[in-house]
Amino acid sequence: MGTFIVAAVLVAIIVLIIVKLIRDKKQGKTSCGCGCTNCAMKDKCHK
């Protein structure tokens, strides 16, 4: 029973992380937290 509870908590955490990443992407926030001036992929990330 304990294994199922731990697994359910881990799945819930993963789902919350994915939802946060999707919301941040829709709002235009970057996941790295730094500026894009020195990033090699800046042209691919923001148009």
Note the overall shape: elongated
Distance between the termini: 49 Å
**Regions with little confidence, pLDDT below 50 for 5+ residues:** none
Total discrete domains: 1
Order of helices and strands: HH
Please tally the β strands and state the result: 0
Q: Give the quaternary arrangement of the chains.
A: single chain
Reported for the largest beta sheet, the result is: none
The average pLDDT is 82
User: Helical amount among residues, as a percent range?
Assistant: 55-70%
Given helix and strand content, the structural type is mainly alpha
Percentage of residues in DSSP E strands:
under 5%
Number of helices, where a helix is a run of at least 4 consecutive DSSP H or I residues: 2
Calculate Rg over CA atoms: 16 Å
Keywords:
47 residues, 2 helices, 62% helix
